[in-house]
Amino acid sequence: MNPCDPSSPNEAWSSSSTDSEASSPEAAFERMIEKLDAIGHDHDYLKKEEKTPGSKIPALRISSSTTKQDIRDFRSSTMPYTEAKPTDPPSSEPQSSDSPLLAISQKPMGPYAIYIIQEISGNYSTLVPHHREIAANNRPDLCMLKMTPRSKDLLNPGRLKLKNYLPGDAICVMSLCRAPGAWDSDFCMSYDGVMNSENHKFWEIGEFYLIQREFKEKELVYKMSTTVTMTKKHAFVASGCNVMCEVQRRVLRRSGLRPSVDMMAYAKIFTPSLQPESFLKGSDRNHLTRGTNSYCSGFHVYPTVTELFKLPDELNEDLKMADRIFQKYDSENPRPWEILLIAGKLGLSANLAMENKHKDFMHYARRAREFHRDENPEDPLSLESKIPPRKGRILKFRIRKENGPALQHRWCRGTFFSMNVSGKIVDMEVEHSILEPSGYVLIFASMISKNAQEQKFLRNFRKNVVVFQRIQNNLHGLKNFPNEEGFENILKTSPIKESLVVLRKGNLVQPQPAPRRKSTQSKELISSKDHSRFFGYPLTQDQEEYINTIVYSNQPATVVDSCFRGGKTSVIAISTSLLSSKEPEKIHVACATTNLATAEIVRKFLELPTWSGKAVRLVSEAARGSDPKNKTDIDFPKIWSDRLKWYLEDVEYDEESDLVISAIWHLKKHRIQIHQNSTTKLVDELDLESPPFSLFETFLQIVQPRIIFGTIAAITESLYHGMLAPVKNDIETVQFDEASRIGLHELLAIGVNLPNARFSFLGDSRQLSPFVDEDLPKFLKAVSFAELFSRTTNGFPCLNFRETFNTPKLTTDLLSHMFYQRLTQGKTIDNMKLLSAKLKNQFPIQILRFEGGDEEKVGQESTGNSLMSKNEAELTKGLVESIKKLMGSSFKIGVLTLYKGQAGRMTTLLKGIEVDFIGTVDSSHARNFDVVILLTTTSHFRKKSFFENLPRLNVALTRSRGFTFVTLNSKATLESSSWDRLLGQIPGEAHRFGWEILNALEKVERRLQYGYGYEDRSNWDRVEERIRRSEIRKRDFQMVMDHQTTRRDCGRKFPRNHHHSKPLKGYGYGSPYN
């Protein structure tokens, strides 16, 4: 086969030939020259051209306007340059380094190709193609070009200075030239080693245009440690940017700044608009990716700091003490408010940048197929059994880099990526990955969207796809973050300002006594007895005091530090109803960090016998999903259409006001049937592109809700761009549930838009705080996350809910000793008697030991940083089945794990069994179950922060209203003081082998004690027989010893071998000795 034949685009060139005449490199080169002109003109990877709308960014505009013909013309135009002599250096003076380089903003005339500077080193720079099509189909010589001082910038005359150009710069290459001293044999003819710059000695860039750059001016940056970047390069995080920025050493030297780890400075940042290894519009990406992956390294261009400027000394000092800024400035001064917002935005940007570190930007062209969970029904512990049966379909595929194995730790569970299927982009999430001995990474993934219609796309899926990771689009948090003038128009006496002063200064606010009402006819709060009458909920004295404070006092912030199941959700629902009754013209907000927690508040509110106020929950249809736990009866997507139709019926459709027209327009847009009359016809005749009011504004004016529920993110978004923006000055109170999970940046973002609102924070200071990337520096954590809840408990009057409900007394005592102080026992549920009777032990925390020690015996496996154990998983499955059989299907069971990998395996093994929750401890926050099974998995509890984290352990042990079963490796080493302390407080009779618990629950597969693995099912009968015989021998021996002692006491000699005369049935009823 001719290696230059266009019909074999995946074949690599080779200089070797069986023809003796063509065996020399010169002959091979001449033959290659003759045929290169025909390459790239009629290939199937170039499809019909598509028109692309223009972009405001010049680089994107030029890229999108580049066509297939431009690529063909450039490839063909390069061949005459093989005979051209090297370009002589211009005789003029070198380029100036003082003035900005001129650049183009429109597509140039003539053949061209877009290249991107990859690296600048020494006397040349290496560039890679922007479009994959440039080097595809037997043009490995174009996979990498070199720019030297002999290259000519057409708009910037003079001898080229490489240091004037930046990594990530995009240029339009207009011509190539042969490098001085290049031999014909230096022409790159193979894709083997094509990304090694030593294999590209033939071409140099001749003439080119620089494409206009995009800069961010005067951005605040913070230097990161090299341990975070995992390279020797210096890197910064920049305010308003969600990726890290690179910086050249010469920029640091020129700035005169010392590159210390905590350095802050102003920077000018070059933000590349184009990335390498992109595709032309309309290309067959699957075919093209397969043909080009051998030379695509996944190189990604990051922003580059081009200039650094020293911060003013005063600003630098203020930022470093941002977490205590009001110790320096008075609250009337605008300076501290600017510092709060500047520092908060920098810290939030840094955390978002941490989410985008260590990505794999390779494109992988593979064949994916739907994973059917019944593929291996006989082997529940197969590799594929680790895939969790989410409410959606699972795809399976393998990836591998051409120049080495793909990095499995970049494709671990929870990794988001995109999948291109014939031009359709589908967002996916990795459920499990396995590094195979062959070097491939086997990946199981699900579609992020659980919409039933979209899930049909994956039904019986078996197609060629291109999978790739992208920079995570997490800029929504920055989009809704205020600029530094955010507090400019807010009065000093506003509750948000008073609250922030306390948080940053450390002053203690004196509690304001709340007035009490004397009328017993009113629904307003008087005492807990009245609450029972009006709301059917008995309140403790602390709960009553909280409701009095939030309803009747003017205190800027109220704090409740509550124990687990202390009634936070209920008091939020009650106080919200009372507030709406007391101030019906004001708006009151109740929010939480998750949709699940918010839905629970709404359900408590709707369960109240007497609740008042028009209420709505702000939630999108996508956030509601298919899980009924996330849905309530007052969700905006559910009620808006009915409320608009009722309004139109009340006004009889006759008004032609903007509000009526808007209501009709939105109902028609969503194809909701309404009564037709002259007004609806008028709307049809107007044919409006947009109505007078948005859907949110229409709903707000018609319904006029006075109670708003939603997540913090939803409320913040609505204050900036949605329903609450017009009425933000009418919001009187905001109550945060699970406030221990809130960061300071969230309070800043929501508080700037609520100048009149009072706040209340209800959380548990002894449980998990907001998630912060472990690599985020301490300073950035302080200015953006700032242990917000612990500071509120120290600065504001704090009420302590220390009475826990629906919790066993022994659990309360143990957790009070380990985490809390002086917990009291509230009302408990009595649904554990049957389970206690079966276990013959009433202690609510049971330790279940499973056999193991070394990895091979335990069956412990690792995937990335996660662990799995098949013995532990099978034991848990048996326990869940037994409890469900004993207690009924309505019994709520939560399976919590320390490791994501084990959570995935458990979800698979428990397929078909109704389990309320399966997941990690960290994701179980704010959930409650009747029974919890906590899987520790590991055989080594190290003395590290992961195991010593008391809040995580507290969350794990407080999710259950009844028993908590903790699985533990029988040979686990306990170096962790926290776990050692916990196990030391659990009585010995509550430490048992798993088979004993299963036996107590009438589960007969007791195998672990005798060393048989769960997969060895053929030995189960033999094991049961050994157990039976062992128990008989123990019982007979004990009966004989007891009888011998009795005879000795009576002075009679025990008859020899009498106990062998007949089999003993037991000591007691039925024994031959009775």
From TrEMBL:
Family annotation (SUPFAM superfamilies): P-loop containing nucleoside triphosphate hydrolases (SSF52540)
Biased composition (Basic and acidic residues): 44-53
Domain of life: Eukaryota
Short name of one Pfam family: AAA_12
Annotated segments matching region Disordered: 1-28, 44-103, 1044-1074
GO molecular function: ATP binding; helicase activity; hydrolase activity
Keyword presence, Nucleotide-binding: yes
The DNA2/NAM7 helicase-like C-terminal domain, residue ranges: 812-966
The protein's name in its UniProt record: DNA2/NAM7 helicase-like C-terminal domain-containing protein
Keywords for this protein: ATP-binding, Helicase, Hydrolase, Nucleotide-binding
Composition skew (Low complexity), residue ranges: 7-27
Biased composition (Basic residues): 1053-1063
